[in-house]
Known about the structure:
7-stranded mixed sheet
Amino acid sequence: MEYMSAKEAAEKWGISQRRVTVLCAENRIAGAERVGNMWLIPRAAEKPEDGRREGREKKDGRRVRPFLKWAGGKGQLLGEIGKYYPFAHGHTVKYAEPFVGGGAVLFDILDKYAPEAVYISDSNPALINAYRVIRDGAGPLMEILEEMQQAFLPLDTAGRKACYTAARDRYNALEIGEGERARLEKAALLVFLNRTCFNGLYRVNRKGFFNVPMGAYKNPLICDRENLLAVSQKLRGVKIVCGDYREAASFIDRDTFVYFDPPYRPITRTASFTAYTENQFLDAEQAELARFAGEMGERGAKVLISNSDPRNADPSDAFFDTLYAAWRIERVEAARMINSDSRARGRIKELLISNF
Length: 356
């Protein structure tokens, strides 16, 4: 029997290569076989019907979760954000998330639908490196994480602190550009620190150094094999970019759903901002994002933006209401869980801003 690659099948059937791999993974192409990281497809195979045109959601029985805990993650708001997903009727077939962070919305969409093309980006090089390492094969990463887990868990508190501090120092010293081994180690250290640090918080100082202290977890799951394998499968074919959100302009068109989850505007002037990178995202940057989002909307893209609601602290603060006066603004409840003062944690309002 003669076989063709997923790329050849995509060209033959007029669909994306990612769509072909999804169809193979769903066992919807008769005779398709996976060899390593490749799918081999019988040349005589027929193109499956596209069930998405009837609004069918993709179900593969494996629920994938973000592989990192992330401050400001959208897991708790997926019920609200999911109401905006425009994929059910087949008119929107691409997805872009330029501030991907922990990827809660990304993985929710990839669990439920099969966009023909997906683009994610972030300005955090270590985060994007981890996404790429997992996408390209989670096996080597899991080997390192299992070694870290076996070495860390039996230690007493003092031993764990010493191990954690050494890992943090190594993470801050390691440059991703030093080669393949360095990229793999950097990704493993990021996951390890994320699983063992205080509240799963990612924060860097102005020099770009990760400076979060160790958490107090009794038995942290450092190597979640099942989820890492699922994440790796979901990320295959996804375009992963390290850079400014504006670079997504080359991907976004009228067939695209775009979700922007930028660094939130501090609720109060004295709030201590949790920095994901050493670069600040102030009111001028929020205004520039609004301008860019408007340009993407003019192309016909469906755009959704999330941010903090300034009215939590000052009912007269209409910053976003003015900035997005022509957009639809919905206020939804969220729980603020990460704060050094437990009294400051609780229910607040957040904004979902859309052009549709």
